Amino acid sequence: MSPARILAFDCTVDRFSALLAEGAQVRAERVRAAGTWRGEQVVGELAALLAGAGCDWRDLDLLAVAVGPGSFTGVRTAVAVARALALAADRPVLAVSTLEAIAATARARHGLADFHAALAAGRGLVHLLPVVAGAPAETPVTVPATEPRRMLPAGSVLAGARLERIADALADALRLLPVAPDARGVWAAARARLSRGARPRPGHEVRPLYLRGPAADPAAGRPLVPQPA
User: Per the CATH hierarchy, to which homologous superfamily does domain 99-178 belong?
Assistant: First the structure.
């Protein structure tokens, strides 16, 4: 049985969103547009959401959070907050990928069944998660932005975020559908995971999902600490 009361949130890409759900109903929701929130405000935003719904942290059964891929700062914030809240409130966490959240939103809002959830990753790359008959694959892939044009039939749908970054590389071969990750997608993806028997984990086991290496290599070039002559 799914936990009765879930606090879900996402801040992995640009905006912050959170919701409190009880059973199959959303009781309260908060959204902050890109550029209007900072990482240090996330706990306060979640506390305000619960207070507005007349709930306390210990009234929750489960935390659900998107853990990436996405912006480094957003992913790091999401994981840090989930770990801290899980420890403070003694509640388990179900981590989902940003691509799972996108897939859940695309299914709910656009009725898609067979498509690829996508997130442009920078450095000419794109993260893809195949979805077949409404069920997302277990493992995403990261490929050059030109690769989906070669690997997928013409007209295939890529639903996801930051797709304007790869539009030129695809040259209208595929259908691009903007779908931003959000707390509703996180909640839906978490409920789907639970229905398949997934088990929430302690907060300290939550890990970020980056799917690619850092943009900068601190070991390259000059040493960070001056070396003795």
Answer: ATPase, nucleotide binding domain (3.30.420.40)
